[in-house]
Amino acid sequence: APAGGGCSPAGGSSVPVLFCFSVFARPSSVPHGAGYEMLIQKFLSLYGDQIDMHRKFVVQLFAEEWSQYIDLPKGFLVSERCKVRLVPLQIQMTTLGNLTPSSTVFFCCDMQERFRPAIKYFGDIISVGQRLLQGARLLGIPVIVTEQYPKGLGSTVQEIDLAGAKLVLPKTKFSMVLPEVEAALAEIPGVRSVVLFGVETHVCIQQTALELVGRGLEVHIVADATSSRSMMDRMFALERLARTGIIVTTSEAILLQLVADKEHPKFKEIQNLIKASAPESGLLSKV
User: Fold this and answer.
1) Which residue numbers delimit the Isochorismatase-like domain (predicted)?
2) The CATH number of 104-274 is which of 3.40.50.2300, 3.30.70.260, 3.40.50.850, 3.90.226.10?
3) Which of 6, 37, 56, 176 could form a disulfide with 89 if both were Cys (CB 3.0 to 4.6 A apart)?
4) 171 catalytic, yes or no?
5) 27-82 pLDDT tens trace
C-alpha cells in the first residue's frame, strides 16, 4: 500500500479499518490486501440505508503525513490499520436503466388470493405478472416471490405459475428484503437490477424498492403489473419512487429491453408473449 495510510501494521489475515461517512465513524475490518471494491462493499454494508446510490462518491484515505484526507491512491491495497471515508460529490448520476438477463432478477410481491377483491385492476396485473414470469423463464432470469402472511391472506393466485422460481417465501415484514432474500441475491453473481411488481404499490412495493436502492441495486417497477386498493395511494407512491431515481416502466418495455435485438434467439417467443396477453384496462392512465 502507498505510504501515509496511517497507523500501525496489523497482523493476521484481516486489518482494522475505521469507516467514516457523514457524521458517522464505525470500526470494522477487511481482509489484508483488500482494495477499492472491497472498501465500497464494506461502506454499503455499514451505511447502505443512508447512502444515496444515485450520487457519485470518492473514497479518501487519512494521510498522517498531511494530517488530512487524500483521494484514495491508485492501486491502493489495505496492508495496515487505516481510516477511510466516503465523500458524496455534488453531481448526481443519471440512472440509465440498462437491463441484461445475466444481471437481472425479477421480484414478484404478494400476488395473493385474498387481495383479489380489494386491489384495483387485480385481474390485469395477474395477467401481466404471469407474462413477466414466462419471460423470465424463457430468458433464464431468476425469480424471487414473497407471500404476505399466507396463513391469513392465502397463497399466490393459481393463475401465476411459480414453476422454476428461485425462492418462494412467506413474510410478515412489508419489504421483500428479508435475510433469506439477501442470501439468495448473494448466490447470483453480478446482480445489478431488480424488476419489481405486485401489490401494494404504496406499501410492500415502495418499501422493497427503497431498501433495494439503499443496497446499491437499480430498481425497475412495472407499472402495468403493480397496483393498490386506492389509485391515489398508487399514484403518489409511483411519483415518489420515480423522484428517487427508481425507474417506473412497463412490462413490454422490460421484456423487449431484455432481448434487445430482433436476432435474439428468444425474440419470437417473447414477441408472442406480448401479443398474446396485453390487457387494456386503463390502469396506466392512473400512473
Assistant:
1) 104-252
2) 3.40.50.850
3) 56
4) yes
5) 999 999 999 989 998 998 998 878 776 667 899 999 999 999 999 998 999 999 99
